[in-house]
Amino acid sequence: MNVTNLASIASALVAAAALVTAAPTQAFADAESILQSQCASCHALQAPVNNIAKSERLSRIAPPLHFAGNKYNRDWLVSWLSNPSPIHPAGYFPQRHIINTGDGDTLDTDVRFAHPTLSTAEADTVATALMLLKSKSALIEADTYQPGTVAMRMGVMDFRRFKGCDACHQDSTTSGGLSGPLLYNSARRLQAAYLSSFILNPVAWDPNTVMPVLEMNEPAVHKLVHYLMMLEE
Amino acid sequence: MRNQLKNIVRVTGIGALTFLANPGIAFGAEADGAALYDMYCVQCHGTQGNGKGINASHINVQPRSHIDKGEMSARSDAELFKVIAEGGPAINKSVLMPAWRHNLNESEIEALVAHLRKLCCEN
Predict the structure, then answer these.
(1) Cα-Cα-Cα-Cα dihedral of A208, A32, A187, B95, to 10°?
(2) Closest Cα of chain A to B86: distance in Å?
(3) Percent over 90 (pLDDT), chain B
(4) What is the pLDDT of residue A13?
């Protein structure tokens, strides 16, 4: 745990240093200033130094971005930042959007999705700056995923029936639970090693995550990743 | 904080405000069972603990109603602790009830057991 912490602090420092030294161009300085002035109020851009109390998650507004470079595909970032759309069908913290009907919960449909939108040029430089934030490189380096395939029918059964991922995640626009981020665009949005490492141990990525550790071995995780990587939007 | 509040409202609409104004959701020095339940369990078991959370219609097995006095009284505290820590299979129930021992420490799980006792039997 301490080693991981040190490693992530170290890589955060390296990333920060890279931001400073690799900013000879005006575009880059602009990206840094956009991140600080327009994004940091909602998104964590630096890894927390100590383990933080659970209450932190309840007041968190948006997903942390201090491991953006370990998580996203750059092309997806550029297109999403210039044309954002919901990723968490029920919002980042669904409990804020629930209406209790007296006979079960439904989502408050009055809550509208809105996110700052960047021009394509801004999105491009901001994506470059985000891809340098790699507080979790140690987890990616420890991951053993190799690309592969799985029979589609087996993948569906595994994701939905056997592992119960669809209790919280959508693997198609019409199927799956609402509390977790949608996953049918995983291949375009996320790096395969991130999928693998996060599914194996979400708590290592975020001690206050709302996703349970599903206690699977690596081959079982890798089959789910094959499936997610094969999904088409 | 004031700025953040404005931002929350911009991004999430009214919902956030009612949430923030809810005094029930705060963690004290001791693990707070109600807040932990809200954070981890409500997504499936529902805001009222009746098993009808926003995910419930996507789960093959209905999440247990925690307000069912009969069913819940049949379980000892030790069994409740076990199923929360180790997941459904630990008490011969569905894998769709996940294990939480990696997300929660012992005192947090104990706080949840105490909260379940309130939900089922103190109304």
Answers:
(1) 0
(2) 10
(3) 69
(4) 52
Whether the CB of A61 is below 8 Å from some CB of chain B: the reply is: yes
Q: In the prediction, which pLDDT does A54 show?
A: 87
Cβ neighbours, 10 Å, residue B64:
21
User: Any idea how long chain A is?
Assistant: 233
Question: Could you say which of B13, B53, B60 has the minimum Cβ distance to residue A110?
Answer: B13
**pLDDT at res. A111:** 72
Query: Mean pLDDT across chain A, nearest whole number?
Result: 89
Tokens describing residue A183? 């996953």
**Distance from C-alpha of A36 to C-alpha of A157, rounded to nearest angstrom:** 44
Q: How many CB pairs under 8 A join A and B?
A: 135
A63 and chain B: CB distance < 8 Å anywhere?
Answer: no
Q: What is the ipTM of this complex?
A: 0.84
Q: Which CA distances in Å does B73 have to B66, B82, B112? A: 10, 15, 15
* A17 token code pair: 């240093």
Q: Please indicate whether, in this complex, the C-beta atoms of B54 and A57 are within 8 angstroms of each other.
A: no
